[in-house]
Amino acid sequence: MPEHKILLLIDGNNLFHRAYHALPPLTAKDGINVNAVFGFSNMLFKAMDELKPTHIAAAFDTRAPTFRHVEFQAYKAHRVAPPADLYPQLPKVKKVLDAFGIKYFEKAGYEADDLLASIAVQLGPSVAQVVVVSGDRDLLQIIDKKIKVQAPGWNLKDATLFGPEEVAQKYGVTPKQMIDWKSLTGDPSDNIPGVAGIGPKTASDLIQKYGSVEGIYENISKTAEKVRTKLEAGRDNAIAAKKLIELDASINLGCKIEDLSFEMDLERVIGEYEELGFKSIVAKLTGKQNNSISSENFLIDPRQTKSEKNTSDQLELI
Fold first, then answer.
1. For 19-38, what is each residue's pLDDT tens digit?
2. Which helix (H) or strand (E) holds 10?
3. Cα dist. 173→72, 116, 169, 231 in Å?
4. Given phi > 0 = left and psi -120 to 50 = alpha, else beta, which region is 128?
5. DSSP three-state, residue 87
6. Cα separation of 109 and 276, whole Å?
7. Is the dihedral of CA 158, 162, 168, 172 positive or negative?
8. How far apart are CA 63 and CA 223, in angstroms?
């Protein structure tokens, strides 16, 4: 029955990057840095313990260009090359997911956000609750009474759960209007310019009055002169940005809710963490009498992470 099902969705790339930047290097037996694997595991344990999901899926980006790159050649063009020790860790993260029996999805031409949005929207009616774990603000647009987004904090321990009310309190708009809000303010992380000079507060005020980017431009004559000048100059940017920011929730991934049930292979999980050299995790797992996970045993000590001063800007909701 839907009322007994909770679907947990993991933004693989987002959590993977957050973990890497939050933690100091941690070397496995093979000499590869595995700090991102350790942090990713902690966030997974925490989400499983707190949310008690009956079904789980993860999604990852591919290296292939997406439809957004085709639409806007400068999309994410400003991003620097990733650290050399980052992506060699990704196969190890996927092996951990395999050990947990958690399916993950990738699709050339689309970002993980699009895949997560498609799963959440299409399978949402089959469950009582959907929670997407991600620090990517783009996913706030799919929130409704059933779909929520949990954003990890800078130290990977604290997290904020966003529903419609939390989005309204923080941004002054509805979840769906986050598309319009970001179209006006832009998205530096993706190199989307937005409307120059229109900040978060002005964007919220305009959307509250006129409902959408289209509504704002239909009523542009009613806006203050200074704001009107900025809007007129940024019209093309705002309209183009909206196409890039809106997630594609129509992707057919060929999965049903039953396909996302999982069964943790405790022996295999322990084996993976032994290979990674995560002695503290192995010690906790080997002492368990069942397959339950307690986040109390696995949460990262923030004193062991990099300083908040150096990482908080990178790990805020983006």
1. 999 999 998 888 889 999 99
2. strand 6-11
3. 26, 22, 8, 19
4. alpha
5. helix
6. 32
7. positive
8. 42
The pTM of this model reads 0.88
Q: Which pair of tokens denotes residue 265?
A: 């292979």
* Best CA proximity match to 302, nearest among 17, 33, 22: 22
Residues 307 and 310: their CA atoms lie apart, in Å, by 5
Closest alpha carbon to 189 in 21, 82, 77 = 77
Rounded CA-CA distance 27/31 in Å is 6
pLDDT tens per residue, range 195-252? 999 999 999 999 999 999 999 999 999 999 999 999 999 999 999 889 889 999 999 9
The 10 Å Cβ neighbour count of residue 245 is 22
Enter the DSSP assignment of 224. -
Each residue's pLDDT tens digit, 83-116: 899 999 999 999 999 999 999 999 998 999 999 9
Is-contact 146 6, C-beta < 8 A? no
Amino acid at 131: V
